[in-house]
Structure formats: C-alpha cells, structure tokens
Design goal:
The structure holds two protein chains of two kinds. Chain A is α/β, with parallel strands linked by helices. Chain A has 23 helices and 21 strands. In chain A, helix 2 links the parallel strand 3 and strand 4. Chain B is elongated and about 70 Å long. Classes of the chains: A alpha/beta, B alpha+beta. The interface between A and B is medium-sized, with 26 and 24 residues.
C-alpha cells in the first residue's frame, strides 16, 4: 500500500480492489463477517489475511449458513450482516438467505466474486449470472468490474441495506477488479441516493386523523410487527401502548418488542396464534397496525378480515399501504417517529371492558389447549410446550430464542415468556427450514454475553447440520434444543387434518444425533422420560459452551389453535 | 375489469433496472404488450413506456412496487383517455409492386404513410398512428406482398400539465430527509 498526498491535498492510496474492499468494510464498522472462500473471491480472502486484527471472518460450512448467520447477527446487533462467497455455486447458495432477508426486511450485504470481466458471458468455470439470478430476492444489486468503482458500490450497498425498509443487497465483483491496483481517496459513506426516498416525511394530517380515531375508539386493537424492532422504538412503543391502554398483539416478527408478561400484551396473531386476538380482530372498531405488513399467515381470508374496523397503518414502505388490507388512515414513516408523534396526540385511556373480552377468550384457549400442552397427563408423551415451559422458567425468559420453521417454531413463540427486547430470531416470511442453527451462531456473535438457544426440529436440523462445524471450530456457545418427533411435524399435521391422514414423505429416518454432536466435539443429552426433563434442562442451560439437548416429544401432537387455510381469523379452531 | 394501461417510468440510466421493472410484471403473470425505453427530457434519466392489460387495482400496486426500486424516480399509470400516444410501423415491399401498379401508391396516400427509402429491390414505407391504423395499412398492403413488417412500442405523453422536472425535484429533496 502506498499513500501520497496529491496537489488537491486529498490523500490517495494505491492498493488492490480487494484491499480497498476490506478497507471499506472496516470503515462501515464491520468487525465480523461470514463466508466461504473459492476461486473468484480469493484476492479478497488474501486481503482479509492482512486485516485479521480488525475484521473476523467466520467460515461457515455452506454459503447458505453464512447468509443465515449474517441474518441472525443483523437481527440481534441492528447492524448490517455481511457475507462473502465465491462465484457460481458459492453465489447461488446465497439465494435462500437473500430471499429470507428480503421477506423479513433484514439488512444484509452479500459480496460475491465473479469471473474476470473479459470472461463474463463465455460460460467460464464457476460463472453464473448472479446479478440476474439474485435480482428478485434483493433490494438492490450491482456488478463491479473496475477496482476504482468498489468503494462507491460498497457505500451505496450499506446505505440501501440499512435505510428505509431494510433488506439484502448483493455486490458482485469481478476477479480482475479485485486484483487491479488503483488510487483510492479516503472512503466516503453514502447518505443519499437521489432516486430513493427511504424515510417518507410524516404527514401531520394523517397523524391527526389517526389520533382522532385512536382517541374515540371503544374497542381498539394494536397489531405490532418487525417495524417496531427495526426502528428501535422500544420505549416509544411501550409508552404508546401504556398511555392509550390498548391491547397489543404481535406477529412473529414483532415478538419480543413488548415483554410477553406485559398486561396489555394479548398474544400472537395468525394461523397458530392466540384465540383472543384473532377472534377480536373481527370485533375491534379501530385496528392500529404498527410496522407489520398483513401477511396471509396473519390475516387468513383477507376478504373477511377486520371489515368492521377502521384501519390505521403505520408503515415505512408506501408499497405496503393497501397491498393486502385497505388502510383508512395510512401513516407513512419510520415507526419510531410516527409513534413519538402519536404518543403526544393520543389521550390517556383505559379499556377495561374490552380487555375483559380478551381474558374471557384466553380462559377458553387455556382450558381447551394451553393447559394440556403445558401439563400433559402422566401417561402422555412429552409435549413441545412443556419443554419450552421449563426452558422459559429456567432461563427466566432472558434468552435469545432462535427458531427454525415448523411446529416447534409455533410452540416456542407461543410459550416462551420473552422478558427482553429483541430476543426472538426466526424465519417468518420465507419459512426457511435450516435457518435456526446458523442464525443462532450469528446471534451469539452479535451478543456474546446473552444466552442464545436454538430451538430446532429434527427435520430442519438436518438441513444445515453442517454448521455444527462452526461451533466446533470457534467454540461459540450456542445451546441447541432439538425437539424430535421423528416427523416433519407441521406437514404431517396438515396431512392429518386436510389429506385424510395420508402421511406422505414425512416420516423421518433419523441418525443418532448425539453421535453426530460427539463428532463435532459438542456435549449432548437425550431425554426420553419426563422425570428427567427438568434436570437435563438445568444442565443444558448451565453448561459452559455449546450443548445439544435432544428431547423426544409426542410423535403426533398437533398445534392448536389453528386457522385453516382460506378461513377467516374469527374461524380459528381450538381443536 | 381488464383494461389497457400505459405506464411511464423514470429511472436512472443504469444496467439492470429494466430487468427489475419487467420482473415485477412477469412475477404477477402480466404480459407486457409493448415497451419503449429512451432518455427523457431530463439528462441522464431514462423513461420507459410500458403497455399492459390488467385491472386497475393490480396496476396501482404494481406502480408502487416499481417506485419502490431504489433506482426508479417515479412511475405513473394512465388509461388511454389520459394520454396522447402513437406507435410507428415500417413495411418493406418489393419495389416492383410500386412501380408496376398505382394501387400501392394509392394505399400509401390514403393512409398518409410515407416512403422512407426506395431501393431497386425494396421500398420501406413508414406509418405513424394508433395500432389499429398501422394494422389496417398492414392488411391493405398484405395482398401486394409485404417482405417484412415491424411495429414499435407505444410512446405516450400524459395530458396533465405537471412536468417530470417538478416530480424529480420533489423526489430529490425527499431523498435528503
């Protein structure tokens, strides 16, 4: 590296594109990144070798693992998650993680190597058109073919990934651009793109209309989503809920934005959510959606969704307004700013009678579902719910819970008593099996002082099981709770309920998971008897370092309540 | 109800944006009837004109999805009565058809078409108008032997008087917030 001061007094440094890239990452505050090396990204790995003190590269065992680890890291740290991969198969392996981050608005920058510029289009070894392939699953992407263009592309990538509605961005850099030497000025971060409006200006009129509706509502209901967490509106949201006295229900992406035990937290929305908030969505007079996007898993049949209610939608992305549910009062803007403004305009209030309706319905759900799920009869097999209950009690609701996708995901989110802000990491929109293990690794790197528990089923575990290698190598302290029912439980439940119990390809022929853990140097226990469960969980959670706890749970337990596909939220079934 | 809509989309002049925009249609199984792209009245900003048939509710959502793209400034949609629009068609005919009879010449005159090039072997006729007009000319020339035919995508200008420059200034100011 060679630094010279030019006549204009601007310091210019000569270095390779790869070294410039690593400098850019350091200047963006990246200290940890996830990736996998290969031919077309080798100059970047070479440059990382020189900066080991400043930037730590975690080598996952598959590029998909790198994306989920970066997502877990981003979701907990609030920073941009960063991934590195080579061209061709390395790049295509990122697609699932990009799609997941796109649907769950997770800030992520993926950098891929590409074959040298002059070979592009020649079907060269490990060449794929990753810019075209990733277009549908990125917020923005770009190919860079000259070293001098790298800093501006990286600056733009980070700005786009984290601003407005966050999302994944891909920067594809040809190998010759990585090698090429160029003169670089001091790195400039990006803070504006002329065609891009990430933060819509708050409309005073909309805020007034919203406040008027909120203040005159008799039976209002708040639905909160990821936007509360993404905008860091912890205090603003809780203050708003408490001042207005309005019951608040969460989407799985909004979970942990308000403690589970909060008296106004009325539970989970949607397909396997709680009885009361689903039923009462179709009884409330004003629906206040905060940073959520009315996903079909939340709304059920949208033509019979909250038709009686006036809808207020606090949302940063104009494309989400009226996309699935018509908003009477759209409030465009960052949730934190909208909530701050609304907090002032909203009156102090209490909705005792209306809250009592929730309690009535809660009692029904408790009687028909929750009691049995959390305290099965002695002769019944262990339930996922009772395992989560003990995990929750013993960890005092303080852990970060990272879930995979399926029955265990619903159970963990329904029954873990989240005490702290930003403590739930899950694949919500895309429903990516295999998400939890690498995402938990990323979450732990983001919050080394917090307990991180990955809750995984026996199906999803085997989709990214190779990431146990990262735990083995880095000794990262991720606790793995494997809820094993020897089935693809959610698919089996649907086959049970809607396909006349014709169980097609859901029976899992599983390996010995303890033996696999042993191969990776990870201690483990397997629980098959209820009377051993609590002691095992104590050992699991107090163990120093990673630990696999496999619990054999009831094979054919179904998750209730449930809104069958095509049904309305108020048709939610308790059995 | 399905209707014809014309979308005008203003974008940065960068590689890949056209692909991002067109996949918004293909993902929703909407066929693009015609597409035209060129530089707009503002330097370095490109304008796409896209014609599709769909329902207005869908089109509204699509316009928002297009505007959501980082490098897109603004997207508008219009029904046919909200715009003035034209298409151009070129017809390649054997020159001997024109020299031997008066018929082709009469058709060309009647349609206010013009001769763009006359070569010993072939003649190129140009006609600007609505699709129905260029199609009618095509039907009439067809018996006389059309060697080649091409029609451009629609270009259109909206009737409302607000200029893109004003929108451009608004977006640029909002991007600084």
């Amino acid at each position: 590296m060679e630094t010279v001061a030019t006549k204009s007094q601007k310091t210019k440094t000569t270095m390779s594109g790869a070294a410039a890239l690593v400098n850019c990452l350091i200047r963006e505050g990246v200290e940890t990144l996830f990736g996998y090396p290969g031919g077309a990204i080798m100059p970047v790995y070479d440059a990382l070798f020189d900066q080991k003190e400043k930037i730590r590269h975690i080598m996952t065992r598959h590029e998909q693992g790198a994306t989920h680890a970066a997502q877990g890291f981003a979701r907990i740290s609030g920073k941009v998650g960063v991934c590195l991969a080579t061209s061709g198969p390395g790049a295509t392996n990122l697609i699932t993680g990009l799609a997941d981050a796109q649907l769950d608005s997770t800030p992520m920058v993926c950098i891929t190597g590409q074959v040298p510029g002059k070979m592009i289009g020649s079907d060269a070894f490990q060449e794929t058109d990753i810019v075209s392939i990733s277009m549908a699953v990125t917020k923005w992407n770009i190919q860079v073919t000259k070293a001098e263009d790298i800093p501006a592309a990286v600056a733009k990538a980070f700005y786009i990934a984290k601003s407005g509605k966050p999302g994944p961005v891909l920067v594809d850099i040809t190998k010759d651009a990585q090698f090429e030497k160029a003169e670089f000025e001091d790195y400039q971060t990006c803070d504006q793109i002329r065609s891009y409006v990430p933060n819509p200006k708050l409309s005073e009129k909309a805020l007034d209309q919203a406040a008027e509706l909120i203040n005159s509502a008799k039976k209002p209901l708040i639905l909160f989503g990821h936007g509360v967490l993404l905008s860091n509106a912890k205090k603003e949201f809780q203050d708003f809920v408490e001042k207005t006295g309005i019951p608040a229900a969460w989407t799985i992406m909004g979970l942990s934005a308000l403690p589970t035990s909060h008296p106004l937290n009325v539970g989970m929305l949607g397909m396997h959510g709680n009885y009361a908030p689903n039923i009462l969505t179709n009884e409330c007079d004003v629906l206040i959606a905060v940073g959520m996007r009315f996903d079909d898993r939340v709304t059920g049949d949208v033509s019979r969704y909250a038709k009686q209610a006036k809808v207020i939608h606090l949302e940063i992305d104009p494309a989400e307004i009226n996309k699935n549910v018509e908003a009477n009062v759209p409030v465009l803007g960052n949730c934190k700013e909208s909530l701050t403004a609304l907090l002032e305009k909203a009156n102090e209030n209490q909705h005792g009678e209306w809250l009592a309706r929730f309690n009535e319905l809660n009692a029904q759900e408790d009687e028909k579902v929750i009691k049995d799920e959390l305290n099965p009869q002695a002769d019944e097999p262990m339930s996922m719910g009772e395992v989560i209950k003990h995990i929750s009690n013993i960890s005092r609701g303080n852990a970060i819970i990272v879930t995979d996708v399926g029955q265990h995901q619903m159970v963990a989110q329904r029954y873990y008593q989240y005490a702290n802000w930003k403590s739930n990491v899950t694949s919500g929109g895309l429903g990516t099996m295999g998400f939890a293990l690498p995402a938990a690794i990323g979450a732990k790197f983001a919050a080394p002082n917090r307990q991180v528990i990955a809750v995984i089923g026996d199906g999803g575990f085997q989709m990214t099981i190779q990431e146990l290698g990262v735990i083995f190598e880095t000794k990262v302290d991720v606790k793995i709770l494997l809820l094993n029912n020897e089935y693809l439980g959610m698919v089996r439940q649907w086959q049970h309920m809607f396909f006349e119990k014709r169980y097609s390809s859901v029976d899992m022929v599983n390996p010995d998971f303890q033996m696999i853990a042993k191969g990776y140097g990870i201690e483990s226990e397997k629980v098959t008897e209820r009377d051993k469960l609590e002691d095992s969980i104590h050992r699991f959670l107090s163990h120093e370092g990673s630990f696999l706890l496999e619990v054999m749970v009831g094979k054919e337990n179904n998750i209730f309540p449930m809104i069958p596909t095509g049904a309305s939220v108020s048709e939610i079934r308790l059995e | 109800m399905k209707e014809q809509f014309t979308l005008s989309i203003y974008t940065e002049n960068l590689i890949g944006i056209l692909h991002r925009v067109t996949t918004i249609f293909t993902r929703r199984h909407i066929n693009i009837e015609s597409i035209t792209a060129s530089e707009s009245e503002v330097k370095d900003i490109h304008r796409y004109t896209i014609v599709v048939s769909s329902e207005e509710d869908k089109i509204k959502k699509i316009v928002k999805q297009i505007e959501k793209q980082v490098d897109v400034f603004k997207a508008f949609y219009h029904k046919n009565d909200g715009i003035v629009y034209q298409e151009m068609a070129l017809y390649k005919m054997p020159t001997k058809q024109l020299s031997q009879t008066k018929e082709v010449e009469n058709i060309v005159r009647k349609h206010h078409a013009r001769l763009l090039a006359v070569e010993p072997d072939f003649t190129i006729i140009e006609k600007t108008g609505f699709k129905e007009e260029t199609q009618e000319l095509f039907e009439q020339l067809k018996p006389h032997g059309i060697l080649e035919f091409v029609r451009s995508g629609r270009i259109s200008i909206s009737k409302p008087m607000k200029e893109f420059q004003d929108y451009f200034t608004e977006v640029e100011q909002a991007s600084r917030l």
